[in-house]
Specification:
With about 675 residues, the protein is an all-alpha fold. The protein contains 28 helices and 5 strands. The strands form 2 sheets. A 3-stranded mixed sheet has the order 2-1-3. A two-stranded antiparallel ribbon has the order 4-5. Strand 1 and strand 2 form a beta hairpin. The longest helix is centred in the C-terminal third of the chain and has 48 residues. The N terminus and C terminus are likely disordered.
């Protein structure tokens, strides 16, 4: 970010037309010799150039030469002389009585050179130091562009330009003019001041942020400064009262250019520097560390800086390196506003990695979500909108990394448990993540499928997701039956609500529960105007409606109990079916052997006796130990019939209850 690489380019790069300083100086030296008759006696070497001058003009106005020329007539100025030979040439021209041409491009170098040569009022009235200070205060610091030029030229003049307060005065002046730009008392702005509210509800994009800077040229000027100067300007803006919603975007745009952009090398090379890749990483690391110190934290940063920007900085820190405490600070800031993030902002492992489950990006995301839980979860798992949003974000993230072929079921289960199940109001995204995992791992056993899918609650699935789960062959059998039962209950409830609303609409004219349009003047039928209401809320519901409401509530409780008991039965039947499958395989393998077939007990059948018992269908069967191959097949068919009848289980129960409730209503 250096503006120039040579010390004398601050004068040479001035765009203002100027005469040949070297030719003018030679003319002055010859004229002085002719007027005074004194020869040239002093030789001054500056860099690679040598100047032959007279002793009297140098000693008259410069304290430095007055002290040095007592002992010798040959001097060599040090390498750190401000401005180099070009600047000394202009100083020498002034020493011979000529006026010096000053502009914003050379005033900083001239002021520093005059200070080095001790050209103050102590040695000569109206000396160069005072003249240059007057020009800085009355001309340069009154203009935004001139102040920027001087501040940029001060980079090669440090630390002397800092000691002379040139840098400090320029920074304070720029901060003051920036505040005036924000206030804009004359209402000359065509567009509002740039803020980051537009980026808060979308994924972070470097290109979008770059386009926003174009609208405000003063921000574009500030983010072109070296970071040392930029950091001090941000501090001055805050001291002078600029609101944080205007200060923070400037920091974000600066980081977007010098940390996140892919053209960082090009920016530095355009400034006249050739740097290697390792130098780029080191410089970016230093700037990134400084940016983190400038950014607001916790509550001040919310809705001011998009959380996607913090994710971008965190991703960049993996490439350039950052101190562990700074990474922890960045992760804490992300966790404090995680519910405002987008899934597109999250850290995704790079393509081509050996294993996603062991990547640094995934470990960092786990740490961020764990930090969020420590911030927002008390003794109990509280259910809030923020927690629900975070849980849905995590499930969506899992669906994007579940395609890792090397991810073990145990690891996937640990990832699911990163966010408590109680945080999830909807299990649709969790179902998608499980489906993605099972698609990538078709060889997992039934036990592992059941373990992975045990977190899924079919009652929290949407209608579309529930239908998809029923038709998904990858899901375990127990989950499919549960989804069928939940779908049946939902369908029955929807039909019940539809029929109730239709019945109330038809009976409104006769029961008085609804206002009748046919008899608008029949007030005696309206229970809302009963004299026994004592001015309370109008009662528009009949006794039959209240009884039916109680029956519906009891029906819902019974259906819930039926769902739990059915789930338990399905789980047992599934285990018996798996054991029976193994038994059939062993039976088929042993048919070819002449030995006596070995009796095997399927899972869940060990406690059954040899006597005949009745199965759940009311049929008499013998013990599974005494069955031959054909009888075992018939037993398996009976189990399958049980599964088919489960889908009608709730419907028959509800029909019985509806008939009893109808009889109760007739008796009432």
């Amino acid at each position: 970010m250096e503006a120039t690489s040579s010390k004398d380019s601050s004068v040479a790069s001035s765009p203002f037309p100027s005469p040949n300083i070297g030719a003018l100086l030679k003319i002055k030296i010859i004229s002085w010799s002719q007027e005074t008759g004194l020869p040239v006696t002093v030789r001054v070497r500056v860099g690679d150039r040598t100047f032959n001058l007279h002793k009297n003009p140098l000693s008259l106005k410069s304290g430095y030469f007055r002290k040095r020329l007592i002992e010798t007539t040959e001097l060599e100025l040090p390498q750190e002389f401000p401005g180099g030979p070009k600047t000394f040439e202009m100083i020498a021209l002034f020493l011979y009585g000529s006026s010096t041409l000053i502009d914003p491009f050379n005033v900083a170098a001239l002021r520093c050179a005059a200070e080095f040569l001790e050209m103050t009022e102590e040695y000569y009235c109206g000396n160069l130091c005072e003249r240059f200070d007057l020009y800085l205060n009355q001309v340069v610091l009154q203009s935004w562009d001139d102040t920027l030029i001087v501040l940029q030229r001060c980079q090669t003049l440090l630390p002397l330009s800092e000691e002379l307060l040139i840098v400090g005065r320029c920074i304070e002046s720029l901060a003051f003019m920036a505040c005036m730009e924000i206030l804009d008392p004359e209402r000359r702005r065509d567009k509002p001041i740039v803020t980051l509210e537009a980026l808060a509800d979308q994924a972070w994009s470097c290109e979008t942020a770059k386009e926003m800077v174009i609208h405000d040229l003063w921000i574009k000027d500030l983010i072109a400064l070296p970071f040392g100067f930029f950091r001090r300007i941000i501090g001055s803006l805050r001291r002078q009262g600029m609101k944080e919603k205007y200060v923070s975007p400037i920091i974000v745009f600066y980081a977007n250019k010098w940390v996140l952009s892919k053209k960082i090398r090009q920016f530095w090379e355009n400034s006249g520097n050739r740097i290697e890749d390792i130098d780029v990483r080191n410089r970016v690391s230093v700037i990134l560390q400084g940016i983190l110190d400038l950014l607001p934290v916790r509550e001040k940063a919310r809705r001011v800086i998009p959380v996607g920007f913090y994710f971008a900085l965190l991703s960049r820190s993996f490439e350039v390196g950052l101190r562990s405490e700074s990474k922890a600070k960045l992760q804490d800031q992300i966790a404090s506003q995680l519910h405002l993030a987008q899934v597109e902002d999250f850290l995704l492992p790079k393509i081509g990695l050996d294993s996603i489950s062991s990547s640094m990006e995934l470990a960092t995301m786990e740490s961020i979500f764990s930090t969020y839980l420590s911030f927002n979860m008390g003794a109990n798992h509280t259910l809030s909108s923020s927690n629900s949003i975070v849980a849905e974000l995590w499930d969506t993230y899992l669906s994007r990394i579940a395609f890792d072929p090397k991810m073990e079921p145990r690891k996937f289960m640990e990832l699911i448990e990163t966010v408590p199940i109680s945080f999830r109001q909807s299990h649709d995204q969790l179902y998608k993540a499980m489906n993605a995992f099972l698609q990538e791992h078709p060889d997992v056993s039934q036990e592992e499928k059941g373990a992975v899918c045990k977190y899924l609650n079919c009652q929290k699935l949407s209608q579309e997701a529930c239908i998809e789960a029923v038709q998904n062959e990858l899901m375990p059998l127990r989950l499919i039956v549960q989804a069928l039962f939940v779908q049946q209950l939902n369908t029955h409830q929807a039909f019940k609500e539809c029929s109730d609303s239709f019945r109330y609409a038809q009976c409104g004219d006769f029961s008085g529960s609804l206002s009748s349009s046919k008899c608008p003047n029949s007030k005696s039928q309206n229970l809302a105007e009963s004299p026994y209401s004592d001015g309370a809320e109008p009662i528009s519901r009949t006794l039959s409606f209240l009884l039916q409401n109680d029956v519906a509530t009891q029906r819902y409780e019974l259906s819930k109990k039926e769902y739990e008991s059915t789930s338990f039965r399905i789980q047992n039947l599934e285990q018996e079916l798996l054991s029976l499958k193994k038994s059939l395989q062993l039976q088929s393998n042993s048919k070819t052997l002449p030995t006596k077939p070995q009796r095997m007990k399927p899972y869940g059948m060990e406690s059954r006796s040899l006597s005949k018992k009745r199965n759940p269908l009311g049929q008499v069967t013998s013990c599974i130990n005494s069955m031959n191959f054909a009888s075992q097949r018939r037993y398996a068919n009976r189990l399958l019939k049980v599964f088919r009848r489960i889908t009608l289980f709730g419907n028959r129960k509800l029909k019985r209850k509806s008939s009893t409730s109808g009889q109760l209503a007739k008796s009432m």
